[in-house]
Design a protein that fits this description.
Shape: flat
Number of strands: 42
Low-confidence stretches: 1-26
Distance between the termini: 209 Å
InterPro entries: EGF_extracell (IPR013111), EGF_integrin_1 (IPR040622), EGF_integrin_2 (IPR057073), Integrin_bsu (IPR015812), Integrin_bsu_cyt_dom (IPR014836), Integrin_bsu_tail (IPR012896), Integrin_bsu_tail_dom_sf (IPR036349), Integrin_bsu_VWA (IPR002369)
Family: Belongs to the integrin beta chain family.
GO molecular function, one term: protein kinase binding
Strand order of the largest sheet: 4-6-22-21-16-19
Main location: membrane
Strand content: 15-25%
Keywords: Calcium, Cell adhesion, Cell junction, Cell membrane, Cell projection, Disulfide bond, EGF-like domain, Glycoprotein, Integrin, Magnesium, Membrane, Metal-binding, Myogenesis, Phosphoprotein, Receptor, Repeat, Signal, Transmembrane, Transmembrane helix
Number of helices: 19
Structural class: alpha+beta
Helix content: 10-25%
């Protein structure tokens, strides 16, 4: 009886159901098609489940956003809407401790992070946020392990490190009163080609008279201790060794220091590893050179403080080292020479909570380097978490010193923190779904390089409280095929339907499925619905205004053609994927207007008489014309030039078309007028008019107008040609002759003037030379006298 009474509720109009769903427009809760309260609350935090079933509604209609449920008259007491919560299980305050205080606390008694344990109850889509505090404790214990390269190039460095223990102890007293130091050394794998395996070289790998110890991979010389003089004594006993290649086997040593906690003596305090070298490093894959192919297993292999498996396992990879250093909360300081700074700075970027310092050529600055690197590392706190369960996400927001806030990746860290400073983080954890197995998960959050951590237990809300009161195999479900919980039937395995009235096995049979296939096709319910007991139940959309319909869910009202990104162009409605257009519109997307007003040209014609109006736009039939109304013709000569020859032949029986005038030029009505003033004027006409002025072969002008009135082309032409008067020959000839004569006279005058000027210059020159002449009055040099006088040399004048 309960089944039939419940079944009667289905006999209601579909319009009532649509009216109800319209209240939930845009709800993702409706779209989820949830069949139970547990499925509903996992859709989103805004979804609620109504325990009261309204007549005619399906089970999935119970799941909706809270406001919509209230509008549908679902009482608040009938709505299932469980919320998440936060419970702090352990909340010890951070330690306020002074270095010079009398209270001495063990490392495990010091608290730097608060709270320490929480339990979060998560609902899908609802984040839970809590605050985490971190405070750097003063006088916090420190363990420092000094790992040194003892290849031959580090000989002078070893001398400066021998007193490092006591000197570093004094410096670290300024930071902490609880400091321990240890020492280890490394060289290289003890196989070819990294070292020479000749017997003599295995005893002393150095050349010349140098006395070196046998090569080794890694040696733990001194376990962590608070005795600085013991460090000095043991380090002073160390000897340099040697190898063949430049890169060293430091990664093997780092791995053993990280994983051999008991042998090294690490405590749960600040752990520092100082890696000192003047060379590069081998990493995973380099072991193949020595025939070593087994990957590093990341386990401790120290026997008598010596690494014994260097010849068996390859070098560790960088990622493997990062994992082990992080797991063991070890902060690394790379003390390397200037030459290898770029290499180790790149390595620092890959290893969290690490620093690089420049080591002098003889390690004389190692203490200052360690202090500076420690201050740099300890001044920054970076939170990290272990692997999150599937579907769980976490976000951080930091509130650092001076109120500086950070989000995203910067939300994980705070910098420039001094001892005693307190910073906080807002941490939000959100789940998107329930875990597949179990309902409890544990995640841990801790600052990098610190042993303290926050343990977070995650409980997931996967079902509603009302589900605990369910009635298994209830009579309210068809033949007891379901559990009646939260006001609806939750069907047993293999059953479906509102009241679990159908069997999945029956529904999947070919006979029942055939009733859900259109035209014997292969798609069930057109892939837009489910075949329930041989009848298609169409899927619901996120927007209930969008509806699948039809016997086979083959129709919908949202998949019609669109125009301007509007369904049916905004001028129609979509019915079964076809547009039903409004008046004056047509086309598949109702984007074709039947109005012609937009096609009218300036002359009042549709598309200027040179095209057709389609969908409110002109399609020009003459390819020469274009534009929105076919009025633009870039290649046309113009109206006047186009009709010139025809007007000339009809009005004056002349021109190029004189012989074909009747055939080619009878397309217009010609009207002759007496003068230009008689031509139609533009202001007198209610239609477009063009005035033309053209010239014939005899240089005579003729004037006419061209217009189209009532589809009739009219040409008004002035009946007389306007020819220019002929030239007057006599004045022209007289003017030319007079011009020639005048030009000749001008040329003669110019010539005469030039000659006068030239003569005067020559005369002036002559006069000047005459004035300067000096006449000689002596004897003519070419004159010879006719008289010859001969003197007798014997004549004495007697």
């Amino acid at each position: 009886l309960p089944f039939f009474s419940e079944l009667m509720l289905n006999c209601v109009s579909s319009s009532q159901l649509k009216a109800t769903l319209s209240l939930s427009e845009g709800s993702i809760c409706i779209k989820a098609n949830a069949q139970s309260c547990g499925e509903c609350i996992q859709v989103a935090e805004t979804c609620g489940w109504c325990n009261f079933l309204t007549v005619g509604e399906s089970k999935s209609a119970r799941c909706d956003d809270l406001e919509s449920l209230k509008k549908r008259n679902c009482a608040v007491t009938k709505i299932e809407n469980p919320r998440g919560s936060i419970n702090i299980d352990k909340n010890n305050p951070v330690t306020n401790r002074k270095k010079d205080g009398s209270d001495k606390l063990k490392p495990e008694q010091i608290t730097q992070i608060q709270p320490q344990k929480l339990t979060l109850t998560l609902r899908s889509g609802e984040p839970q946020t809590f605050e985490l505090k971190f405070k750097r404790a003063e006088d916090y214990p420190i363990d420092l392990y000094y790992l040194m390269d003892l290849s031959f190039s580090m000989k002078d460095d070893l001398e400066n490190v021998k007193n490092l223990g006591t000197d570093l102890m004094k410096e670290m007293q300024e930071i902490t009163s609880d400091f321990r130091i240890g020492f280890g050394s490394f060289v290289e794998k003890t196989v070819m080609p990294y070292i020479s395996t000749t017997p003599a070289r295995l005893i002393n790998p150095c050349t010349g008279n140098q006395n070196c110890t046998s090569p080794f991979s890694y040696k733990n010389v001194l376990k962590l201790t608070d005795k600085g003089d013991e460090f000095n004594r043991l380090v002073s006993q160390q000897q340099i060794s040697g190898n063949l290649d430049s890169p060293e086997g430091g990664f093997d040593a780092i791995m053993q220091v990280a994983v051999c906690e008991n042998q090294i003596g690490w405590r749960n305090v600040t752990r520092l590893l100082v890696f000192s070298t003047d060379a590069g490093f081998h990493f995973a894959g380099d072991g193949k050179l020595g025939g070593i192919v087994l990957p590093n297993d990341g386990r401790c292999h120290l026997e008598n403080n010596m690494y014994t498996m260097s010849h068996y396992y390859d070098y560790p990879s960088i990622a493997h080292l990062v994992q082990k250093l992080s797991d063991n909360n070890i902060q690394t300081i790379f003390a390397v020479t200037e030459e290898f700074q770029p290499v180790y700075k790149e390595l620092k970027n890959l290893i969290p909570k690490s620093a690089v310092g420049t080591l002098s050529s003889n390690s004389s600055n190692v203490i200052k380097l360690i202090i500076d690197a420690y201050n740099s590392l300890s001044s920054e706190v970076i939170l990290e978490n272990n692997r999150l369960p599937e579907g769980v996400s976490i976000t951080y927001k930091s509130i650092c010193k001076n109120g500086v806030e950070g989000t995203g990746e910067n939300g994980r860290k705070c910098s420039n923190i001094s001892i005693g400073d307190e910073v906080s983080f807002k941490i939000s954890i959100e789940s998107q779904k329930c875990p597949a197995i179990g309902k409890t998960e544990v995640i841990k959050i801790k600052p990098q390089g610190f042993t303290e951590e926050v343990q977070i237990v995650l409980n997931f809300i996967c079902d509603c409280q009302c589900a605990t009161k369910g009635e298994p195999n209830s009579d309210k479900c068809y033949e007891g095929n379901g559990t009646f919980e939260c006001g609806a039937c939750k069907c047993n395995e293999g059953r479906i339907g509102r009241l679990c009235e159908c069997s999945k096995d029956e529904v999947r049979t070919e006979d029942l499925d055939a009733n859900c296939r259109k035209d014997n096709g292969t798609d069930i319910c057109s892939n837009n619905g489910d075949c329930v007991c041989g009848t298609c139940e169409c899927k619901k959309r996120e927007n209930p205004a969008e509806i699948y319909s039809g016997k086979y869910c083959e129709c919908d009202n949202f998949n019609c053609d669109r125009s301007n990104n509007k369904l049916c162009g905004g001028h129609g409605r979509c019915e079964c994927r076809k547009c039903i257009c409004d008046a004056n519109y047509t086309g598949s997307a109702c984007d074709c207007s039947l109005e012609t007003s937009t096609c009218l040209a300036k002359n009042g014609q549709i598309c200027n008489g040179r095209g057709t109006c389609e969908c409110g736009l002109c399609k020009c039939t003459n390819p020469k014309f274009q534009g929105p109304t076919c009025e633009i013709c870039p290649t046309c000569p113009g109206v006047c030039a186009e009709h010139k020859d025809c007007v000339q032949c009809r009005a004056f029986e002349a021109g190029e078309k004189k012989d074909t005038c009747k055939r080619d030029c009878s397309y217009f009505h010609l009207i002759k007028v007496q003068d230009r003033n008689s031509l139609p004027q533009p202001t007198d006409q209610s239609f477009p008019l063009t005035h033309c002025k053209e010239r014939d072969a005899n240089d005579c002008w003729f004037y006419y107008t061209y217009a189209i009135r009532n589809d009739t082309k009219e040409v008004y032409v002035m009946e007389h040609l306007d020819c220019p008067a002929g030239p007057d020959i006599i004045p022209i000839v007289a003017g030319v002759v007079a011009g020639i004569v005048l030009i000749g006279l001008a040329l003669l005058l110019i010539w005469k003037l030039l000659m006068i000027i030239h003569d005067r210059r020559e005369f002036a020159k002559f006069e000047k030379e005459k004035m300067n002449a000096k006449w000689d009055t002596g004897e003519n040099p070419i004159y010879k006298s006719a008289v010859t006088t001969v003197v007798n040399p014997k004549y004495e004048g007697k």
